[in-house]
Amino acid sequence: MMISKNEIKEIRALGQKKFREERGLFVVEGEKLVEEALRSGFDVVAHYRLEDIGAETMGRISQLTHPSPALAVVRRPAPVEPVIDSDELVLALDGVRDPGNLGTILRIADWFGIRQVLASPDTVECYNPKAVQATMGAIFRVRVHYCDLPTSLPAGLPVYGTFLEGDNIYQAPLTRGGILVMGSEADGISPEVAAAVDRKLFIPPFPADAHTSESLNVAVATAICCSEFRRREIL
To answer: Per-residue pLDDT tens for 65-78?
Structure first.
């Protein structure tokens, strides 16, 4: 299988956000991710396998330090307005800038049956190659809506957020549906978004008076919160 120089150039360009947005495409790499893409219902524009194109060519089109055996170019879904049910748990990410954290959070959302994530404009792009890799396929099942969070949080639903002065999450009342806001590790939840939060939560250390790390990684904190929300549903 031959790939033209222009085709190689186009695939390589998708490593940059500017070209991903211009072309409406992104790249997935690895046997599992390519298989997920092919059965996802997403439009797979092209896919390549190492045995078909050779190690040298795969190395030229790959975004990874060590190229994987498979790579696919996938069309990004068109943006849509989120429709949120009253009993649906939705994540809202405020300024999460690390692609690995974002990808892990989408993987966590997928595990806990959360199908929609709202994200502030300064949250890293979910089609960043590092974010896509970290999702382990969740990118095809969890929809990310980039929006202005302060004006886009749906009315009538409880809005939870994690704060140092919040109520102990293991003791606080939690509802089946609502919006769970997670902020960046560096800055936390912004004041504009915090103003919309009506239920502040805190993940306590153990024991409560112990001298511990200053904070939790945002992906770890998200996993703890999602787990507690889902645990309450089956009690």
So the answer is: 888 899 999 999 99
